[in-house]
Amino acid sequence: MSADADGGIAADEEHLSVSPPKTWAAGLPAVAHAMEYSLSQTSPARTALTLLNLNQVKGFDCPGCAWPESDHRHKNEYCENGAKHINDEATTKRVKRAFFARHSVAELDAQGDMWLNQQGRLTEPMVLRPGATHYAPIAWDEAFDLIAETLNGLGSPDEAMFYTSGRLSNEAAFLLQLFSRAYGTNNLPDCSNMCHESSGSGLGETLGIGKGSVSLDDLHESDLIFVVGQNPGTNHPRMLSALEVAKRNGGRIIAVNPLPEAGLLRFKNPQTPRGVIGNGTKIADQFVHIRAGGDLALFQMLNRLLLEAEDAAPGTVLDHDFIAANTIGFDDFAASVRRVEWDDVLAATGLARAEIEEIHQRVLASRNVIVCWAMGITQHRHGVPTIREIVNFLLLRGNLGRPGAGVCPVRGHSNVQGDRTMGIWEQMPQRFLDALGREFAFTPPTKHGYDSVNGVRAMRDGKASVFIGVAGNFVRAMSDSAVTENALRQCRLTVQISTKLNRSHTVHGETALILPTLGRSDRDVQASGPQYITVEDSMSMVHRSHGKLEPASPHLLSEVAIISRLARRTLGNASAIPWEEFEADYDLIRDSISRVIPDFEDFNQRIKRPAGFRLPNPVNAGVYPTPSGKAVFTVNAFDSLEAPPGHLILQSLRSHDQWNTIPYALNDRYRGIHDARHVVLVNPDDLRDLGLSDRDVVDIVGAWDDGLERRADGFTVVAYPTSRGSAASYYPETNVLVPLDSVAAISNTPTSKGIVVRLEKAWDA
Ligand code: SF4
Q1: Predicted local distance difference test score (pLDDT) of residue 453
Q2: Residue 330: closest CA among 622, 633, 627, 637
Q3: What is the rounded CA–CA span in Å between residue 304 and residue 307?
Q4: Average pLDDT score over residue span 84-88
Q5: CB 472 less than 6 A from any atom of ligand 1
Q6: Of all protein residues, whose CA lies closest to atom 3 belonging to ligand 1?
């Protein structure tokens, strides 16, 4: 197996077969696939141990996604993907020094993402010195000295950046941002910059807090749930259990998506007889087959229809008391949304007027409404305005701060929300910096740092030369793969703190370090005894995670230990921060968190409750921490994605056999794609109009005009029921097509769901 230019598996080594897309998700096949993958990674006994501990009160939190656990935990509190993810981490395969002696970095770089991941857990620190062809072992102390010397030799702390993925625990995240700021920079890019930054921006501006407001109970009690731009069957599978409860309680669900994903249609819960031998539960009462990027237009028209319904029957549609007491900006918003035209909305959404009117009738018939969304909303250039318009929609009928109603951005990475709470953000507010400075007797820098996009620009332009990544696979997660790779290769030093091998180890700076760390499931014992870490899920529940398994190697350090030791070496005696004590006893980190971050009072006591505790969302108490103290209706300019003739709007998406940037296999069984990833899904009518046929091989060519040609070559066309004008292909293979400068307004999130492309027959290229 070998890598192609995009770092994936070469198209000519794939053996595509296609079956009809599934119309239901989970069921017994999900159990069978989970077991098959788990047993390919580790023994039956170890598989049993991981699964018995997964998402249990005294076990470990699933790294798969940020979906919350229910208060009454089932003994199998996990999904197919959770089982795969945890056993991928618990694998008994090992990458040892002999492996690195055998394979040059160039050889490793020629391998695909799947192959790299499948080699197993990293076992000791490795270094790639300038000019060397192979990684070689390095002692921990020497590695820390090397990094500290490089950091201390920079002209400015702003020449370094500290990236995190959402796997990091609260404790490690708090220490990382503390180290970065004590060192002197706010350069803290994270994976949230690439996914839900638009949610934080849109909700922060309108409601005063960039988090979701609903709990699992709210979902269960809701009358009407919108699931917009989201594929729960693959990306947050246990969400389907919550939707099933909502349906059982009489709730209705509207799914809005350019693809009829199996999990949006029907769910066979493998933990119930009905799910095993019956037909399961129909999920979407209405499936809205929207054109990519049409959601802003849809919600604007739904808002206009609500205003018109109120005109027709005054006092019966809008919640005037709520609007008067809790909001500002209604008049300007109402005037603007009344100007939205049907023709524009129908063109932008690709929907029939009757479909939108049907949604409107469902809204009128519902008292409590929730809108859930994910990256189908956030990764568009108008992602922030779309979220603001969703807030307008909910405010009109007072659908905030009461049971069964509210906003629900569904996060992908397990602690991505917690990491932000802990201060992983390049622009934390001054009150946070002041509290941090008070706790540790220093003055944190106030100049905003680099997010992910600006971090790549800085490395590309020579303004940053040290990249330290704690977890994640930055080079594959980021947009504009070729530009990002070149930026990293220009660095003086790249450091990756990782559990397994990935592309970010083979795309490196002049000197590169791999520092192996404990996984979520590994036992973590420090000087004061066994430690646990904490995480915050997508619904603001903070809870413990206890690693249980024998670590993959005796040479691993925890992320907390690595950050603490690196900080001590770098900051030396100039820092009064008790790094050594923090490493020895994570309770001490939590004590500091409780003094710095609001709502973490008595952290060490409250976290001992079996389910942990929920961070309050002020919106649920009728408090809107905006400058005006009110929720804000906003005016959002109409925007829709236009593709010139002969072009399509491409969205990148994950396959079902994939976790973030890492494919576990070449299959995507819900979509009927087998043994291949170089496919592009296109509506049959679009294929006809483009003069293409099912199974043609094409090169996908980006239309962004900045002098760089962006191509993803050798993709097989699959005729698929995507909405007209909308195509789909896999991430990260198509990141190469997303220009670095193509970002969502305000949030700076790469527009990975709205890439204008054309398809060239491969032999024409
Ligand atoms: S829904 Fe997410 S957190 Fe829960 S078991 Fe599945 S992958 Fe893990």
Answers
A1: 98
A2: 633
A3: 5
A4: 93
A5: no
A6: 65
Neighbours of 757 (CB within 10 A): 25
CA neighbor of 712 nearest in space, from 511, 555, 479: 479
Neighbours of 76 (CB within 10 A): 16
- The answer to whether the CB of 237 is under 6 A from ligand 1 is yes
**Residues forming a β-bridge with 514:** 126, 496
The yes-or-no verdict on residue 764 having pLDDT over 80 is: no
Instruction: Indicate the burial class of 15 (C-beta count within 10 angstroms; 0-12, 13-18, 19 or more).
Output: exposed
User: Which tens digits make up the pLDDT trace of 191-245?
Assistant: 999 999 999 999 999 999 999 999 999 999 999 999 999 999 999 999 999 999 9
Phi, psi dihedral angles at 631 (to 5 degrees): -70, 150
CA of 138 to the centre of ligand 1 (A): 36
Alpha-carbon distance of 758 to 386, in angstroms, equals 26
pLDDT interval class at 277 (50, 70, 90): confident
Sorted by sequence, the CB contacts under 8 Å of residue 33 that are 6+ apart come out as: 80, 84, 669
List all residues 6 or more positions away from 308 whose beta carbon is below 8 Å from its beta carbon: none
Helix (H) or strand (E) holding 674: strand 673-674
What is the amino acid identity at position 755?
I
Cα 435–Cα 151–Cα 474 angle in degrees, nearest 5: 80
Ligand 1 contacts CB of residue 64 (under 6 A): yes
Ligand 1 and 67: CB distance under 6 A: yes
Q: Which amino acid is at 126?
A: M
Q: Which pair of tokens denotes residue 156?
A: 């400015």
CB 187, CB 465: distance < 8 Å: no
Q: What share of the chain is helix, strand, coil (3-state, %, to 5)?
A: 40, 20, 45
The response to whether residue 603 sits with its C-beta less than 6 Å from ligand 1 reads no
Residue pLDDT, tens place only, 280-290:
999 999 999 99
Q: For position 4, what pLDDT does the model report?
A: 62
Pick the closest to residue 64 from 193, 211, 235 (CA basis).
235
**Cα–Cα separations (whole angstroms), residue 149 to 179, 185, 560, 632:** 15, 17, 20, 49
* d(C-alpha 108, C-alpha 33), whole Å: 28
d(CA 503, CA 620): 43
Distance CA(760)–CA(709), nearest Å, equals 13
Under 8 Å CB-to-CB from 5, ≥6 apart: which residues?
713, 736
Helix (H) or strand (E) holding 370: strand 369-373
Integer Cα distance of 665 and 682 in angstroms: 22
Q: What is the C-alpha to C-alpha distance for residues 177 and 738, in angstroms, rounded to an integer? A: 29
